[in-house]
Amino acid sequence: MSQADALSVRRAQKAAPALSPPARVLWVLFLIACVAVALYLTIGVTDWGFALPRRARKVLAMALVGFAVSYSTVLFQTVTNNKILTPSIIGFDALYVLIQTGMTFLFGAMFLVYLDARSLFLMNVGVMILFAGVLYRRLFGREGAHLYFLVLIGVVFGTLFSNLSNFMQRLLDPNEFLVLQTSLFASINNVDEDLLLIAVLSIAAVTLYSLRFAPYLDVLALGRETAINLGVEHAMTVNRLMIVIAVLVSVSTALVGPITFFGLLVANVAYQVMPAYHHRYLIPAAGLISVIALAGGQLLIERVFHFQTTISVVVNFAGGLYFLYLVLKQARSG
Amino acid sequence: MIEVRNVTKRYGEKAVVDNVSLTVRKGEITSLIGPNGAGKSTLLSMMSRLLKRDDGEITVDGQEVLAVKSDELAKKLAILRQENHISVRLTVRDLVSFGRFPYSRGRLTREDWKHVDRAIAYMELEPYTQRFLDQLSGGQRQRAYVAMTLCQDTDYILLDEPLNNLDMKHSVQIMGVLRRLVEELDKTIVLVLHDINFASCYSDRIIALKDGKLVRAGLTDEIIRTDTLAEIYDLTIPIEEIRGNRIGIYFR
């Protein structure tokens, strides 16, 4: 052991009761998240009995969506070894829009309004899992340079889906289109209460299931070959994680609609603020950051913009800027 | 012992490894040599289950590599590929510690850290342990990857062009370490090498591939000969014996 190493070990032992740097970052994020949630819950309340339960429900929705989006994005980026991919870039969002549009087109807008929210939800989740299952699992079963192939296919599918949706939207009655459009813009304001319970249950189940793969995540991030060399059953693990991702994305999209850039944004902020590569820090950090962003964003929407805009507009604006920054940064360093 | 029997790998119509059979003996350094595109790396990838094959079988100590559990094999056989790109920002020590994953699943014990420090010392990487991989030179990074592979502490070590990017001093150092691992710890090492003189000076046996086919396999002295090398490389290479080593003079 070199002298510097010995020194750092001694220093580490001395500082043992203090928190490690990544743990400290987690605590800071946790406190900020608490403050953001507390502000959101309490600012401008006149009638506590009325406002508090309603806002608390929104906070629950935010926490659920924040966790689902950030967890699925981090998992997806780990599996694909790429930090500017999100499940939405390869067509998940577009599929959701297509399902909604298709149903409006076929059965009319009243169908969307009157259909039991839970059946609609289960239908969405089912179709999206099927899609992920068929497309992504098959593509990932192959070996070689499949990543760019996957992205390409995903982009093609995404374009196909959104063009199909566009086409159908053109043919819709303007009134029906209006109903559809409201259901497509992500919004915490119109989260269905009936959905919250089923969303909590499915996210909890799929998260519990994903825990068995937790030890492999750090290794998976090193790439397919290294992971296999270190004894990870790569194809099987990736397949299972893809299903987990599909469920998480479906649940969050069905709950508040597509939030394209949100996952990208929070995952990358997590990578930047977290002085560690371990997923046991990255995943909670990304989750907390998304709660901060959602609660803060919603606060802006309600107090500054007075409900004149939705969270997806704010998120896509901030996310788009950040995405440009990431691309430019990569271009400069590469 | 690694046994490769009638193994074929095709990309489309073209067989990049064509019905190859060979045996890697325990406790030896075996070098794979041959011109570019001979199928050396492909063969090595198939031996380490990174790549599926179209035909044939490969066994390590009598067990088919695709049938044995991946985490069990990871304690027995390690591979370092030619190109390694890791998108995670890791320090040298982080990277090397991943070599212990098959044993610790990410929760390293004191014993694991001893292995990590030993591997770092073998590769003379002590000054760089806290440096990030993207702050290292190509050669330092290559040594860090080799250290990670050694840290896995497997009976079989497969290295695809481990001397890539390395200067003479560190090439000799790595080959020396590998030789020591064989002599002192009875490891079995398979290398893909481009420099026939390194193959000549350090290996027990040499296997030569060309156009996906095995052309020659034998003791080092049987392969490092002008007529055999001409068959492999289509190049006349005079062989001189210098201080007990057979050296090919292929520079002009």
Describe this structure in words.
- The complex is a heterodimer of chains A (334) and B (252).
- Chain A has helices at 3-14, 21-42, 48-80, 92-107, 109-114, 117-140, 146-171, 174-184, 193-210, 217-220, 224-229, 234-256, 262-273, 279-304, 311-333.
- Chain A has 334 residues and is mostly helical.
- Chain A has one domain (20-41, 48-333): ABC transporter involved in vitamin B12 uptake, BtuC, CATH 1.10.3470.
- Chain A is globular and about 55 Å long.
- By secondary structure, chain B is an alpha/beta fold.
- In chain B, 34% of the residues lie in helices and 27% in strands.
- Chain B has helices at 40-47, 70-73, 92-97, 101-104, 110-122, 138-151, 168-185, 196-202, 220-223, 226-233, and strands at residues 2-11, 14-24, 29-33, 55-60, 63-64, 77-80, 156-160, 188-192, 205-210, 213-219, 239-242, 245-248.
- Chain A binds chain B through residues 1-2, 4-5, 8, 81-83, 143, 215, 218-219, 221-226, 228-234, 277, and chain B through 48-52, 70-75, 78-79, 81, 84-90, 94, 98-99, 101-102, 105-106, 117, 126-127, 129-130, 152.
Write the layout of secondary structure elements.
The complex is a heterodimer of chains A (334) and B (252).
Chain A: H1 3-14, H2 21-42, H3 48-80, H4 92-107, H5 109-114, H6 117-140, H7 146-171, H8 174-184, H9 193-210, H10 217-220, H11 224-229, H12 234-256, H13 262-273, H14 279-304, H15 311-333
Helix pairs in contact in A: 2-3, 2-14, 3-9, 3-12, 3-13, 3-14, 4-6, 4-7, 4-8, 6-12, 9-12, 13-14
Chain B: E1 2-11, E2 14-24, E3 29-33, H1 40-47, E4 55-60, E5 63-64, H2 70-73, E6 77-80, H3 92-97, H4 101-104, H5 110-122, H6 138-151, E7 156-160, H7 168-185, E8 188-192, H8 196-202, E9 205-210, E10 213-219, H9 220-223, H10 226-233, E11 239-242, E12 245-248
Parallel strand pairs in B: 3-8, 3-9, 6-7, 7-8
Antiparallel strand pairs in B: 1-2, 1-4, 4-5, 9-10, 11-12
Helix pairs in contact in B: 5-6
Percent of residues of chain B in beta strands? 25-35%
Mean pLDDT of chain B: 88
Shape of chain A: globular
The number of distinct helices of chain B, counting runs of at least 4 residues, comes to 10
State the order of secondary-structure elements of chain A, H for helix, E for strand: HHHHHHHHHHHHHHH
Number of strands of chain A: 0
Secondary structure tally: strands of chain B: 12
Query: What separation lies between the terminal Cα atoms of chain B?
Result: 38 Å
Average pLDDT taken over every residue of chain A: 79
